[in-house]
Structures are given as structure tokens and as C-alpha cells.
Design a protein that fits this description.
EC number: 2.1.1.216
Protein name: tRNA (guanine(26)-N(2))-dimethyltransferase
Largest sheet: 7 strands, mixed
Number of strands: 17
Strand order of the largest sheet: 7-6-5-8-9-11-10
Family: Belongs to the class I-like SAM-binding methyltransferase superfamily. Trm1 family.
Structural class: alpha/beta
Distance between the termini: 78 Å
Keywords: Methyltransferase, RNA-binding, S-adenosyl-L-methionine, Transferase, tRNA processing, tRNA-binding
Catalytic activity: guanosine(26) in tRNA + 2 S-adenosyl-L-methionine = N(2)-dimethylguanosine(26) in tRNA + 2 S-adenosyl-L-homocysteine + 2 H(+)
Strand content: 15-25%
Shape: globular
Length: 430
């Protein structure tokens, strides 16, 4: 087998010579911004992200995805701090901006920047050369189909701490090879941009890609995250592992669904976080159904009749979307690096804090859109903060959703939510 490194075809067996062998060169993450100073701007460098200049050329690039890249860099830096080393495989690197940031900001010891389009080579090499020369051995550029490059390293028993697969649509064909090439305890950062499948408009497509038959639900964008996590969980179980979600991020501009998962040894033999989700159009409540409830699914508002108003999707990940402690570590690191408040909006801080609130174990899957509640009750909805405060006073858990700005994640049933809203409106009117 041959592969291309910065334009030179070499046998796959020579990959090993590009890995750093001196463990003493590994540094832990400090409390300040990584010590990388960009060189003076050169012609062709027409973008800046977190102080790093780079060129995109003709490669696909979304400026709006910078937040997803911020989250990935923070996670990679924490991994190096906790383990002492960081080897990154950027399987679909495009212009190389993620690889550049893993090198410069996360201080990765070694990065493989792979993209199947060989025409991007000069742009990728030019960008990465701003961190270190290729002769230093900290990075390598390859041009292979993503599965081939990952399985090539797997066959060499050369594993990675962090694998970023920023794929397009619902291409899940990379999942198994990515899991196989990841170290135990390593981090897998995966992507879906298939809003049609998460919205329940292509159920046979989601079934083929992620093993989940997804139907339309009012919180479809959260379903998209759970569909993606569930697909990885299924592949990991097949290989004898299980995964832990560290954060799950939705961005509307793609839409983009990005999840960071830690790979753990051993299967989990119960399926408490992998089952079915139901939404009842009649009462507006959602339900979780386990595998042993199949054939007995109904909603409490229509028992003992068959619930014709109940829509069921799955199997999906039904467990936590985030790890609150891990998110707080990310937020603290972002503060140490001076990333918080630098844009005048604190958007990254707000996002992470909302994710932390979403991590409350009392909160179920899904969320209630205030417009949906108001339509059911035929009222104007009270302010979101006021409604959340009233829910807390009545003993319910409630938080904002980072996915939908005008929605609440809560364990309060829809009927009770409507009653609380009416009470607030009556008090306001009085």
C-alpha cells in the first residue's frame, strides 16, 4: 500500500518513522495561552482564528464552525494535561485549520492531517509549516480515503489519543475504523450534518447510517445528537468497548451535530442508556421505552388503548449528553487562555454554562418549546426566565437549552407546564 506525505509516495510501513520517540519532549498544558507566536502575515493568509493566520484556498471552510473547533482544542489540551501526551489524527482536515490549532494551541506532539483531495496539499503544508517545519516530525500530511489512513495506522498498532472526524452528512462509515485506531481512554470527536434524518424526514436513511429509525419530533435537533451518539455506542459495543459522552454540541448553521466521546474498555451489558424515545402529540409528553417494553408501548393519556398519537424513534442514546465536571474544566482552561470575554459577547462561556445546566441528572431528554406550549394552551407564553423560576419553586428541574433558545429542558409534564404558565399570566394580569 502507498500513501502520500507532502507530495512524496512512500510505503505504509514507513509511517512509523514519523512518530516522535522521545517521551521527554512531551509537555503538560500550562495555565497560560500556548506559547505560539504567529510569524508576520504573508500573502495568501486571509483568515485569522484565535490569533492564528491561515489560508483556505479552495478547501471547504466554515467560519461559523469556529466554536466547534474551540471546543475540540480545549478538550485536546485537557487530554494532554491529564495523560502527558497528545497524538491527533484529523481524518478529514480540509484546509488544515483544525490540525493547525491542535499543534499550536493544544501543543500536540504529533498530528496526522489527512484529506482525500490531493489538490489541498500545498495549502495544508503551508498552514502547518507556520507552527513547525516538517523536518521536526510533529506533523505529516496524507491524502487517502479516511478509512484507509485510519486502518493503516491500526494495522501498524500506532494508536491515537484524539481522532477528529469532521464528516459531511450522515456518513457513519468512518466510525468503526476511528474507534479501532483510538487508544483506550482516548477521545473521538465526530460529526453529522444531516438535518433531514434527525428531523425524521428520512427514517430509512438514519436506520442505515446509525441503526435508528427516526421520526419527526418537536426536539429533532437533540434527537440528531442522540442519533449520532447511539450510532457510535453501537459500533463501540461491537468491538467490545463502551463510550462516555463528554459534550454534545449543536449549531444551526449546518446544521452541525458534534459530539466528543471517551472510549472505555469493556461492554456494558445493560442497555439503560440505549433505547427508544416516544412523543405523544395528544398530551405533549415524552417517554423513554426500554427494549423489553417493545410491543407494549403506549402513553399514559390513552391507556389501555393503542396510542395512535404516540410517535416512537430509536434506538437512540437516552443517557447524558454532557459531563458537567469535564465542561467546567474546559471553561476554566478557556478562562486561563483569555478566551472568555475577548469577543465582548462571552458566547463561549454562555454556551458551556448552558451545557453544564443541561447536565442536571434530573432532566430527561428533549425540551419544551415555549411557542409549542403557548399554542396548546392558547395563551401568550410568559418570559422564559420567569417560567423556569416558577418551575424551580414547584420542585421541578429546569434549564435553558443550548440547542433551542426559546425552549426549556425540564422534568415538568406539559400539562403542569401549561398550568404554571397560566398562573403566571393571571398574577401578571392582576
Amino acid at each position: 500500500m502507498l500513501f502520500t506525505i507532502t507530495g512524496v509516495c512512500q510505503p505504509l510501513s514507513s509511517l512509523c518513522s514519523y512518530f516522535p520517540s522521545n517521551s521527554s519532549s512531551i509537555k503538560s498544558v500550562g495555565a497560560k495561552v500556548p506559547s505560539f507566536t504567529p510569524e508576520p502575515r504573508e500573502s495568501g493568509y486571509n483568515n485569522i482564528e484565535r490569533g492564528l493566520e491561515f489560508s483556505t484556498g479552495d478547501a471547504f471552510f466554515r467560519r461559523e464552525s469556529a466554536t466547534g473547533r474551540d471546543l475540540g482544542v480545549l478538550a485536546a489540551s485537557l487530554h494532554k494535561r491529564d495523560t502527558g501526551g497528545l497524538r491527533v489524527l484529523d481524518a478529514l482536515c480540509g484546509c488544515g485549520i483544525r490540525s493547525l490549532r491542535y499543534l499550536a494551541e493544544a501543543e500536540a506532539d504529533f498530528v496526522v492531517a489527512n484529506d482525500g483531495n490531493e489538490e489541498y496539499r500545498s495549502i495544508i503544508v503551508e498552514n502547518l509549516s507556520r507552527v513547525s517545519a516538517v523536518e521536526e516530525g510533529r506533523w505529516v500530511v496524507t491524502h487517502l480515503e479516511a478509512n484507509r489512513v485510519m486502518m493503516g495506522y491500526y494495522l501498524q498498532k500506532s494508536f491515537f489519543d484524539f481522532i477528529d472526524v469532521d464528516s459531511f452528512g450522515s456518513d457513519s462509515s468512518f466510525l468503526r475504523s476511528a474507534i479501532s485506531t483510538l487508544k483506550l481512554g482516548g477521545l473521538l470527536y465526530v460529526t453529522s450534518t444531516d438535518g433531514f434524518s434527525s428531523g425524521g424526514h428520512r427514517p430509512h436513511h438514519s436506520l442505515a447510517a446509525y441503526g435508528a429509525y427516526v421520526r419527526p419530533m418537536p426536539y429533532s435537533n437533540e434527537v440528531g445528537l442522540r442519533m449520532l451518539i447511539g450510532g457510535v455506542a453501537r459500533e463501540a459495543a461491537l468491538l467490545g468497548y463502551h463510550i462516555t459522552p463528554l459534550f454534545s454540541y449543536y449549531a444551526f448553521h449546518g446544521p452541525v451535530f458534534r459530539v466528543l466521546l471517551r472510549l472505555n474498555r469493556g461492554k456494558i451489558h445493560d442497555s439503560r442508556h440505549y433505547g427508544y424515545i416516544g412523543y405523544c402529540h395528544q398530551c405533549g409528553n415524552s417517554h423513554e421505552f426500554s427494549w423489553d417494553q417493545l410491543g407494549q408501548i403506549s402513553c399514559s393519556c390513552s391507556i389501555p388503548k393503542v396510542s395512535n398519537s404516540l410517535v416512537v424513534s430509536g434506538p437512540l442514546w437516552t443517557g447524558p449528553l454532557h459531563d458537567a465536571a469535564y465542561l467546567m474544566d474546559m471553561l476554566n482552561l478557556a478562562k486561563q487562555w483569555g478566551w472568555i470575554g475577548c469577543d465582548g459577547k462571552d458566547s463561549l462561556e454562555k454556551l458551556i454554562k448552558v451545557m453544564v445546566d443541561e447536565s442536571d441528572p434530573k432532566l430527561p431528554f428533549g425540551y419544551i418549546k415555549l411557542d409549542q406550549m403557548a399554542s396548546r394552551a392558547k395563551i401568550n407564553s410568559p418570559p422564559l426566565k420567569t417560567l423556569m423560576s416558577a418551575m424551580h419553586q414547584k420542585g421541578y428541574a429546569a434549564s435553558r437549552s443550548h440547542i433551542e433558545t426559546n425552549a426549556i429542558k425540564t422534568n415538568c409534564p406539559m400539562t403542569e407546564c401549561i398550568e404554571i404558565a397560566k398562573e403566571l399570566l393571571n398574577v401578571s394580569a392582576t
